[in-house]
Recover the amino acids of this structure.
């Protein structure tokens, strides 16, 4: 069954949903957990988004993280391994009606961590950018309601340029 692509207006409950899930994730990861970040579009107030909470747990090391897979399965997650991004451990919840996605990285993978946080923070700082991104996503969801690959491909050029702007902005912020 193809994944249905739906983009909805920002939901003020998303931060609470993130916090509830982050507490469960912290409990699973225990002392390995360095941080749990709300990332992606649901982490940007006012941004239209697919109603999927993206979460980025950061751990001290990926060694033996698979030992936690049974606990993640007990929380309803499907363990997907790297799933296309070396060094990441990807987990998803909700099947074809996905509700949460975990993008777990080791603290040493600063490039991936900073990329995700920079985009989130940039969109929070520049509402016009968030509005343009939301409009693009809503348009793509209308055009590709049953084609997640078409939806993602349609965002690719915009997202790459957005990431570049966000990382440049983050670099300036870090050097102030």
């Amino acid at each position: 069954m193809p994944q249905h692509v739906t983009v909805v207006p920002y939901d003020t409950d998303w931060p609470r949903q993130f916090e509830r899930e982050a507490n469960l994730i912290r409990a699973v990861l225990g002392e390995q957990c360095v941080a749990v970040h709300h990332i992606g579009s649901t982490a940007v107030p006012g941004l239209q988004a697919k109603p999927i909470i993206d979460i980025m747990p950061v751990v001290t090391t990926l060694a033996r993280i698979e030992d936690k897979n049974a606990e993640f399965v007990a929380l309803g997650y499907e363990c997907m391994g790297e799933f296309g991004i070396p060094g990441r451990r990807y987990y998803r919840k909700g099947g074809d009606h996905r509700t949460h996605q975990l993008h777990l990285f080791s603290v040493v993978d600063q490039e991936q961590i900073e990329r995700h946080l920079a985009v989130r923070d940039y969109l929070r700082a520049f509402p016009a950018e968030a509005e343009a991104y939301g409009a693009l996503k809503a348009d793509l969801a209308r055009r590709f309601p049953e084609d997640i690959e078409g939806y993602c491909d349609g965002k690719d050029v915009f997202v790459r340029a957005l990431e570049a702007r966000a990382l440049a902005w983050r670099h300036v912020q870090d050097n102030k």
Notes: The CA atoms of residues 18 and 53 lie 6 Å apart.
